[in-house]
Amino acid sequence: MKAVGFYQSLPITDEKSLQDVEVDEPKAAGKDLLVRVKAISVNPVDTKIRQGGNKDESTPKIIGWDVAGVVEEVGSDVERFEVGDEVYYAGSVIRSGGNSEKHLVDERIVGKKPETLDFAEAAALPLTTITAWEALFERMRLSTDAADNKDKSILIIGAAGGVGSIATQLAKWAGLYVIGTASRKESEDWVKDHGADATINHHDDFMAQLDANVDYIFCINQTDQHWENMGNVIAPQGHIVSIESAEQKDLNVLKNKSVTFSYEFMFTRAMYETEDMIEQHRLLNEVRKLVDEGKIRTTLTDRSEPINAKNLRQAHEKIESGKTIGKIVVENFR
């Protein structure tokens, strides 16, 4: 079957950095679904893993962790899906990725595709949705009942990107006062259009731009760069969640305020097959309802076809520029 992979880490401008390859078609067993891939979205994790190399350079490494497609085969232990179901999911970073015509994925981390979205629109959602949902409602332990979050505020750093775009919508749906960071007019407009009540520039001092401390902070990029700013504006007994590593930062910045700091890594459940792995299936289905009810919308901004090495190299190059707004999707093998 067709796939796009790489043999070694190369600059994305090199034609060999991602290549069109042929690989064996997998078979579904156990809890796995075999999905015919209709669309895939590109995320920063794709570029980071590509840059991290391939341990076996004789075999192409297949990446890609945002998929929408159709179930073609189910394993013997599958309970929640059947052949023909339209699905969306992010998959597992320790397994082969979705940049292939057919893809194996554990049913416990798969959701039914929103009916009101096409495959490309749906593929823009899974990884960022899982990340945002877990950060807000599991790490921060926010309620999904808007009445419980009255008068609470959240600062989302990197609000115009893929995760930020869905986190802004979810936080607003949950009743919080949402402040998003944006440094360009187009990104500021995007953030406000997706529900932010206000914006600040993440290149400038946070304290000077805010009227009051914030109860929660979701840092989606450059934890190190924003560390002191976050410590300054977080409210006493507040909670900060980050998805990027903080290199040897002084936790005493948070001590006097009794601030909680947590990491969010949406692949944790799949990597370790935790007992609550099924929660990703449940949250994707919950967001499916929100989408179909018109409460949450896709964050797709850039779509192209077909799925091939050339188009995926272009997508990776855009991601590496650090200036993307929303999500990039490539659809349809030919």
Write a structural description.
The protein has 334 residues and is α/β, with parallel strands linked by helices. The protein folds into two domains: 2-125 and 298-331, Quinone Oxidoreductase, Chain A, domain 1 (Alpha-Beta Complex), CATH 3.90.180; 129-263, Rossmann fold (3-Layer(aba) Sandwich). It contains ten helices and 16 strands. Helix 3 (126-139) packs across helix 4 (162-173) and helix 3 (126-139) packs across helix 9. The longest helix is centred in the middle third of the chain and has 14 residues, at 126-139. It starts with a strand and ends with a strand.
The 3D shape can be described as globular
Largest sheet composition = 7 strands, mixed
Tally of domains? 2
According to CATH, what is the class of the largest domain? Answer: Alpha Beta
Overall pLDDT level: 96
Strand segment tally: 16
Question: What Rg is obtained from the alpha carbons, in whole angstroms?
Answer: 20 Å
CATH topology name of the largest domain: Quinone Oxidoreductase, Chain A, domain 1
Describe the secondary-structure layout.
Blueprint lengths: L1 E5 L12 E4 L9 E11 L1 H8 L9 E2 L4 E8 L11 E4 L12 E5 L3 E3 L6 H5 L2 H14 L13 E5 L4 H12 L3 E5 L3 H9 L4 E3 L13 E6 L3 H11 E9 L9 H4 L4 E4 L4 H5 L6 H14 L7 E5 L4 H13 L5 E5 L3
Parallel strand pairs: 9-10, 9-12, 10-11, 12-13, 13-14, 15-16
Antiparallel strand pairs: 1-2, 1-4, 3-5, 3-7, 3-16, 5-6, 6-8
Helix pairs in contact: 3-4, 3-9
Quick rundown:
The chain has helices spanning 44-51, 119-123, 126-139, 162-173, 185-193, 223-233, 252-255, 268-272, 279-292, 309-321; strands at 2-6, 19-22, 32-42, 61-62, 67-74, 86-89, 102-106, 110-112, 153-157, 177-181, 198-200, 214-219, 234-242, 260-263, 300-304, 327-331. It has 334 residues and is of the alpha/beta class. The chain has 2 domains: 2-125 and 298-331, Quinone Oxidoreductase, Chain A, domain 1; 129-263, Rossmann fold, CATH 3.40.50.
